[in-house]
Amino acid sequence: MADSPKLILPDVPGLRNIETYMQHGGYGETLRKVFTMSPTAVTDEVKKSGLRGRGGAAFPTGLKWSFMPKGNEKKKYLLVNGDESEPGSFKDRQIFEFNPHQMIEGILIASYAMQIDHAYIYIRGEYEHWIKMVRQAVAEAYDRGVVGPRMKDTFKPSGDGIAYSVDITVHKGAGAYIVGEETAMMSSLEGDRGYPRVKPPFPAASGLWHSPTTINNIETLANVPVILKMGGDAYSKIGDPKHPGTLLFGVSGHVNKPGVYELPTGTTLLDIINKHAGGVPGGKKIKMVIPGGSSMPPLRGEQLEGVKMDAENLKAAGSAIGTGGIMVMDEDTDIIKVLTRISKFYAHESCGQCTPCREGTGWLLKILQRFEQGNAREEDIDLLHDVAFNIEGRTICALGEAAAWPVRFTVERFREVFEQRVKPGLKIGSPNRVHALRKGGLEPVQIHVPMVERV
């Protein structure tokens, strides 16, 4: 554990302040070197690193940047996705709080590589505390001349200045889960209702205000300064070769030390739960884990041995990396209750634009509530599965899959739980008390964060 690199959240006290960040090399030689390279060479270095997006889709970042049209006279935009709204996902706010300037430096490098002169940081509306922090960090960067028009003098290599600068605007979201989808986020930023758009055209061709736009996640961009500092080849050797680097794993649920842990990709799921997050309270067995946020397919406890946390290995195991939000549930968990709560969230957050999602998420919730209340029939098991299956792939955006996957895969992997629930004379037990036991002193509560500082 001691040798695990901390590229995004290093143990540096006060790193949130720009003076401390610059004392540790921030906005320094790496950025000056970038501005002497060609934009294509910067993109090639990121391609070489193998960096994949940290927002859920794990798409290759350098390849995404290369989609930005060259020689186009239209204004271009970078949209930074900080709308972290999915249950089980809470890692971006760690960057906002403990290392925002590394994210800002990543924005500068990405903007230069794509020749963009204006970037927007879109942050979840409920993150009021962190929005203030990011706005403060951006203001500090402007004051020091590392963002905005004064960049041309700050980073001058030979006395003539650089012919490049970028402005950054922090935008507070209105609190809708759907605007985490890239086209809905663009609609929201433009002042419209946060509806997803039909693709194509893709954002690189027609994005914000019909101009070419690239959307990257907060954690993705925070990796970029590290890549340009150490070199793409060196970065590609960290973690799993097909999904290199470190990831911020947000661990919640039935573990003794819930929190955010930065670890190399390819770390096994059981190591994260047992070694880093302190194991399950009371030594209980694990019944179910959702490895990438609430929208990902869950895994049975018996499936976890040897499962590695990266995009390719999780796909082979029957799930997906998502945002790395690991939700752990022990043997006493009422899975029906958990699934009903998850489905209630997605039914509420559906924008209603697509019929399969608008109607289907409501039906999933109604059927699950029958199971939860002990009123379900045996045929409801297959009905639940069929409704979920018929939402997938039939909507404009991925919220349909986000709502359907947890339900379909839970029915397929825990069918005996549903069969048990429709038996006559069943008595439904009391809720799981493990959280209460952990808080009550059976196991000490240890929230892992790199540094605890409040402003």
Key structural traits:
455 residues, alpha/beta, five-stranded mixed beta sheet, four-stranded parallel beta sheet, 11 strands, 41% helix
Into which percent range does the helicity of residues fall? Answer: 40-55%
Percentage beta strand:
5-15%
Structural class: alpha/beta
Low-confidence runs of at least 5 consecutive residues: 440-455
pLDDT averaged over residues: 92
Report the span from N to C terminus.
Answer: 30 Å
Q: Which radius of gyration do the C-alpha atoms yield?
A: 23 Å
Succession of helices and strands: HHHHEHHEHHEHEHHEEEEHEEHEHHHHHH
- 3D shape: globular
Largest sheet: 5 strands, mixed
**Strands of the largest sheet, in order across it?**
8-7-11-9-10
Task: Write up what this structure looks like.
This protein is α/β, with parallel strands linked by helices. The chain is 41% helix and 12% strand. A hairpin with an 8-residue loop joins strand 9 and strand 10 (299-300). Helix 6 (100-114) packs across helix 10 (218-230), helix 15 packs antiparallel against helix 16 (379-389) and helix 16 packs antiparallel against helix 17. The radius of gyration is 23 Å and the shape is globular. 49% of the residues are buried. Mean pLDDT is 92; it is low at 440-455.
